[in-house]
Design goal:
Two copies of one chain form a homodimer.
Chain A: H1 8-17, H2 23-34, E1 39-40, H3 41-51, H4 57-70, E2 73-77, E3 83-87, E4 98-102, E5 108-111, H5 115-133, E6 135-148, H6 149-153
Parallel strand pairs in A: 4-6
Antiparallel strand pairs in A: 1-3, 2-3, 4-5
Helix pairs in contact in A: 2-3, 3-4
The first copy, chain A, binds a DNA duplex through residues 18-25, 40-42, 54-59, 61-63, 65, 81-83.
DNA sequence: CTTAATGCAAAGGCTTTGCATAGTT
DNA sequence: AACTATGCAAAGCCTTTGCATTAAG
């Protein structure tokens, strides 16, 4: 029963969805809320298990999957074989950002610089898409791919 | 030796990179060039193997990976456990597009409607990011996530 | 000729599933 | 009490790796 009271924003969503509020789910949400990183399921599991040793890896996977489907969490694949998870709206936490990904070394840069200009643009597009395709859009992702300075120096390709 | 003469655009890039032009690579590029779908490695393999039975799955994976690192192909993860590949620039082929993804049923909609407006915006951002982070940007991806009309009707979440 | 590319088989690693148990509502 | 959520172990499945062979430049 960790974090009860705080973070009620998602508890309401759980109830509306008929999903039970359980200790493992609270722990996972807390962890995602407090981190600045792009965490893999295993990363979350390690922290969760440290907090509450009775939490298993399977539950972490299942929780992350549920949260992704609910639109509370966003799942990313940066190309290194394991999925990464981030809270979509992190009140008081990490700022909304987009990604710059090096295709060679898989380095990820989070940028927030031009987000403000992007927001207006994105929202306009979102409204149009939502209407045209009868889609309820809850989130978006923008990524740029290329080579970082370090990898550009190196030979090949 | 399929497709020699045509599609010389990538052959030059191979030579500059010191990569050999081989039959399997030509076949894979041809397949990607001719399709309208988001193909998995297995999908590509099936077609490639049908054209040239001596082509193995491993080579398809290795080729796709190389093309991705070269920026010729873009690798996507739509959340169903297998990676998808698309040619980045497909002269005379499929138009550049972005994705609308249903988090429930994993349906993917390719949209091209508002691309033109996006292009100008994206290029501006790209120039700024490229400069600030000393990154050579070769491509981008924009995706919107949510629920399609069909899944919205269904209960849960 | 030299070195990269390929294929097959096997290994690897992340993620999912079956089933009995514990926990919520 | 009724039914969802969890955990463990095992299975699944996509992807990668080792190594001998073949082919490109």
């Amino acid at each position: 029963m960790r974090g009860r009271g705080r973070g009620a924003w998602w508890q309401e969503r759980f109830q509306n969805a008929g999903a039970r509020i359980t200790a493992p789910r609270e722990v996972v949400l807390d962890i995602l809320h407090e981190t600045e990183e792009h965490m893999s399921a295993a990363d979350v599991y390690v922290k969760a298990h440290a907090i509450n040793p009775s939490i298993g890896l399977t539950t972490v996977y299942r929780t992350l999957d549920m949260l992704t489907q609910m639109g509370i969490v966003q799942k990313f694949d940066f190309g290194d074989g394991k999925a990464r998870f981030e809270l979509v709206n992190n009140p008081g936490g990490k700022k909304h950002h987009h990604h710059l990904i090096c295709l060679k070394c898989k380095a990820i840069i989070d940028y927030t610089e031009f987000i403000d200009e992007e927001v207006e643009f994105i929202e306009k597009t979102q409204r149009k898409l939502s209407k045209k395709y009868d889609f309820t859009i809850t989130d978006h992702a923008i990524s740029f791919f290329g080579q970082c300075a370090k990898c550009r120096e190196g030979v090949s390709f």
